[in-house]
């Protein structure tokens, strides 16, 4: 599959590994793919994100991803649902961080791995497969970073929720990239 990735898409995958490494994560997750996409310039995905007004709000997206990481990867919708059951997620996070330090719920931190080696978790692999399916459905021969962005917006989870909160959805990205007489990415 990776032989079908464009240079931009490969750079996003490599960037996701770097993001996971910086975070000390034991695996590459969907949030790392989104962070790597946010770092891109001059690509189809970066064009779409900028056209949808995310260019100047990228830091807000990073902060929202950090907040979700602190909640142990729960989406805001999941946090709200638990609140409806009387479970105070922010209170639990505060107590755990008080006892174990900031970011204690963020997942395993790995020491001693060699640089650049992080396995992709199931959700991130699903995004890569989703990018392949998106490209195939559009009859594109190659998988670009725009297909990774579309796959992230289509898969339920923290990245899709954070992007949607900032006006970036599957429909809006599709509209900007492919249709309805609006500007199209070159």
Automatic annotation (TrEMBL):
Q: Does the keyword Repeat apply?
A: yes
Keywords carried by this UniProt record: Repeat
- Superkingdom of this entry's organism? Bacteria
Where's the Clp R domain?
2-186
The protein's name: Peptidase
From which organism does this entry originate? Streptomyces tendae
Query: Cross-referenced InterPro entries, in alphabetical order?
Result: Clp_N_dom_sf, Clp_R_N
PROSITE patterns, from UniProt? CLP_R (PS51903)
Keyword Repeat listed: yes
Q: Where are the transmembrane segments?
A: none
């Amino acid at each position: 599959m990776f032989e079908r990735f464009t240079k931009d898409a490969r750079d996003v995958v490599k960037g996701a590994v770097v993001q996971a490494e910086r975070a000390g994560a034991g695996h590459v997750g969907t949030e790392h793919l989104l962070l790597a996409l946010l770092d891109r310039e001059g690509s189809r995905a970066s064009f779409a994100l900028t056209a949808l007004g995310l260019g100047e709000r990228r830091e807000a997206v990073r902060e929202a991803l950090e907040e979700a990481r602190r909640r142990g990867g729960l989406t805001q919708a999941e946090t709200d649902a638990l609140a409806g059951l009387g479970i105070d997620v922010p209170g639990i996070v505060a107590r755990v961080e008080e006892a174990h330090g900031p970011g204690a719920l963020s997942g395993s931190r790995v020491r001693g791995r060699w640089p650049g080696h992080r396995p992709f978790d199931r959700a991130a692999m699903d995004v890569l497969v989703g990018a392949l399916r998106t490209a195939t459905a559009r009859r594109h021969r190659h998988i670009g970073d725009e297909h990774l962005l579309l796959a992230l917006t289509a898969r339920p989870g923290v990245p899709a929720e954070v992007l949607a909160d900032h006006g970036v959805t599957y429909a809006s990205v599709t509209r900007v990239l492919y249709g309805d007489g609006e500007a199209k990415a070159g």
